[in-house]
């Protein structure tokens, strides 16, 4: 949600700053699109009359004193040249000199884009008949002060103003989305019924409509999930009850069975046991799909968990070799120890089943960049590349798994194509991921990645 807040905020900022820049540019050149520059020529008649009166009454000294008073005027300058073309003031800008001695008679020069916006000249006659030339310079308003400083301070002031205003508006627009995000996250974590802020539901815009539609969708999904859970409970009861009766009948049948019938009774017991395990797996997988309750999670030492699973596997299958490589320190993750144990057992038993005779199953545990990485490799025939992704789906097995011997069926392995599917759902339930790949030297590699518990939580 931070992304949309930043986008809205930047949109306000860019729009505001562009508007500010355009406004400043228009302020710089506004006279280019108006008649103000021409209207400024009119007041020069007063300057001309005053200069000529001062020249006639006080001569050049009094006129020079009058010219010096323009130094206190920020936007107007005046210059006087005698009949020899010599300026009474020591420093005269080049554009004023060029205009004063130009052959364009006494016409005003208007340049709204330059520093000198208007130049006006007129003859002055002294009491002794000498002719002087008066040049009045009107400076552009933005040339009176420091233009870079004007732009810089104006831009900075606009940046601060619109930064605060844009933050307020962006927060106002993003707040209902943040509230809706919290409701969606709570719903995804299994906190039902979903609660949406009443203020958001009362909105009459698209965000309010989105909140109302999400609420309706959440209610429908909640009903569907509740119905599914009820169906699972009913199916579990309806299937397990006849299976329990079958087990009782089987034991009664053994009492009167002849030796030739024992083989068939053992087969019935095996299939009944496998059917019970299948039901348990299906129910467990369904629970992982529908329940996202993490309130009971605790710190789990992955290294100790793998050691226990490997010890159990060695006890069950002493003829197989398991190589376990662990780091020196404990490796902690947040999760459900029972579910993680089930996932590791499914993967390791699957590897033991398919590894070639006389080879080992290699298990490596590493920690890197805040991730716990567990690699489990067998030395079996591997899996065709096009089947790797499908193996994580329920009831999907490779051809080698479909052709197991009767000994492998009676060894305790379920063989329904649910082991990897359940393990994948357990790992995803713990915010991790599970990947399958073929090793370059043969065999299947199952790679598990889980987020490592931070040191602050240890």
UniProtKB/TrEMBL annotation:
Keywords: ATP-binding, Cell membrane, Coiled coil, Kinase, Membrane, Nucleotide-binding, Phosphoprotein, Transferase, Transmembrane, Transmembrane helix. It is a multi-pass membrane protein. CDD domains: HAMP (cd06225), HisKA (cd00082). It comes from the Bacteria. InterPro entries: 2C_sensor_his_kinase (IPR050980), HAMP_dom (IPR003660), HATPase_C_sf (IPR036890), HATPase_dom (IPR003594), His_kinase_dom (IPR005467), HisK_dim/P_dom (IPR003661), HisK_dim/P_sf (IPR036097), Sig_transdc_His_kin-like_C (IPR004358). It catalyses: ATP + protein L-histidine = ADP + protein N-phospho-L-histidine. GO terms for molecular function: ATP binding; phosphorelay sensor kinase activity. It is an enzyme of class 2 (transferase). Its EC number is 2.7.13.3. Residues 234-454 form the Histidine kinase domain. Residues 171-226 form the HAMP domain. The chain crosses the membrane at residues 6-30, 155-174. GO terms for cellular component: plasma membrane. Residues 218-285 form a coiled coil. It is found in: Cell membrane. Its main location: membrane. This is histidine kinase. It comes from Thalassolituus pacificus.
């Amino acid at each position: 949600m931070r992304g949309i807040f930043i986008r809205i905020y930047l949109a306000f900022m860019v729009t505001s700053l562009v508007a500010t820049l355009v406004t400043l540019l228009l302020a710089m050149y506004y006279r280019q699109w108006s008649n103000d520059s021409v209207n400024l020529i009119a007041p020069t008649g007063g300057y001309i009359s005053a200069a000529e009166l001062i020249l006639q009454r006080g001569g050049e000294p009094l006129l020079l004193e009058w010219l010096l008073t323009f130094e206190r005027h920020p936007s107007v300058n005046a210059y006087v040249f005698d009949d020899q073309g010599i300026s009474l003031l020591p420093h005269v800008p080049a554009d004023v000199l060029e205009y004063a001695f130009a052959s364009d008679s006494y016409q005003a020069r208007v340049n709204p884009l330059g520093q000198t916006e208007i130049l006006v000249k007129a003859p002055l006659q002294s009491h002794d008949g000498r002719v002087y030339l008066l040049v009045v310079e009107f400076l552009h308003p933005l040339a009176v002060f420091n233009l870079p400083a004007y732009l810089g301070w104006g831009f900075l002031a606009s940046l601060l103003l619109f930064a605060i205003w844009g933050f307020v508006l962006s927060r106002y627009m993003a707040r209902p989305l943040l509230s809706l995000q919290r409701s969606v996250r709570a719903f995804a974590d299994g906190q039902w019924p979903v609660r949406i802020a009443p203020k958001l539901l009362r909105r009459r815009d698209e965000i309010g409509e989105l909140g109302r539609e999400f609420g309706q969708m959440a209610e429908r999904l909640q009903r569907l999930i509740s119905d599914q859970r009820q169906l699972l409970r009913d199916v579990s009861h309806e299937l397990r009850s006849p299976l329990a009766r079958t087990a009782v009948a089987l034991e009664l049948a053994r009492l009167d069975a002849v030796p030739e019938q024992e083989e068939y009774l053992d087969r019935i017991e095996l299939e009944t046991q496998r059917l019970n395990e299948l039901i348990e797996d299906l129910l467990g997988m369904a629970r992982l799909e529908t329940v996202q309750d993490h309130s009971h999670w605790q710190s789990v030492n992955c290294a100790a968990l793998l050691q226990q699973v490997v010890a159990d596997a060695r006890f069950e299958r002493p003829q197989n070799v398991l190589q376990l490589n662990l780091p020196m320190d404990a490796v902690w993750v947040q999760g459900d120890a029972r579910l993680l144990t089930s996932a590791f057992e499914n993967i390791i038993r699957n590897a033991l089943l398919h590894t070639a005779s006389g080879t080992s199953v290699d298990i490596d545990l590493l920690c890197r960049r805040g991730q716990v990485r567990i690699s489990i490799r067998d030395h079996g025939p591997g899996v065709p590349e096009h089947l790797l992704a499908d193996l994580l789906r329920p009831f999907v097995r490779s051809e080698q798994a479909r052709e197991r011997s009767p000994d492998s069926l009676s060894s305790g392995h379920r063989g329904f194509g649910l082991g990897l599917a359940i393990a994948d759902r357990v790992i995803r339930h713990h915010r991790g991921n599970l990947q399958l790949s073929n090793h370059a030297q043969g065999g299947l590699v199952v790679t598990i990645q889980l987020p490592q518990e931070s040191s602050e939580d240890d």
